[in-house]
Amino acid sequence: MPKSRIRKKADFTPPPAKQATNIKLTSSSWVAPVMLALFLIGLVWIVVFYVTDGTLPIKSLGNLNIVVGFGFIAAGFGVSTQWK
To answer: Residue 49 and residue 71: Cα distance in Å, rounded?
Structure first.
């Protein structure tokens, strides 16, 4: 019975090196002030609502003033995703 041929494995060749790319890690100058301003506006909105027993900032909204305050805070978190 004839012997089967032995397959020769190809030599390992490493993949070509990737070129390093420069990544811009600077954020715009407006991001931090806007983020902090939105956080503070939301916090002040909620505190004023509680301190004035619901007569301020907008009396007709009633308890929805809390939602507005947290909306400002959530917008601050949304802006914070742009900060690098």
So the answer is: 14
Please answer whether residues 15 and 46 qualify as being in contact, where contact means their C-beta atoms are separated by less than 8 angstroms: no
Structure tokens given for 61: 């909204």
Tokens of 47: 């505190």
**What CA–CA distance (Å, rounded) separates 62 from 64?**
5
Residue 78 has pLDDT above 90, yes or no: yes
Q: Is the CA virtual torsion 44, 46, 51, 55 positive or negative?
A: positive
CA atoms within 13 A on the CB side of 1: 1
12: exposed, middle or buried (C-beta count within 10 Å: 0-12, 13-18, 19+)? exposed
Look up residue 54 and give its two tokens. Answer: 């619901």
pTM for this one?
A: 0.68
DSSP H stretches of helix in the chain? 31-51, 64-80
Helix/strand number for the chain, H first, E second: 2, 0
pLDDT of residue 9: 76
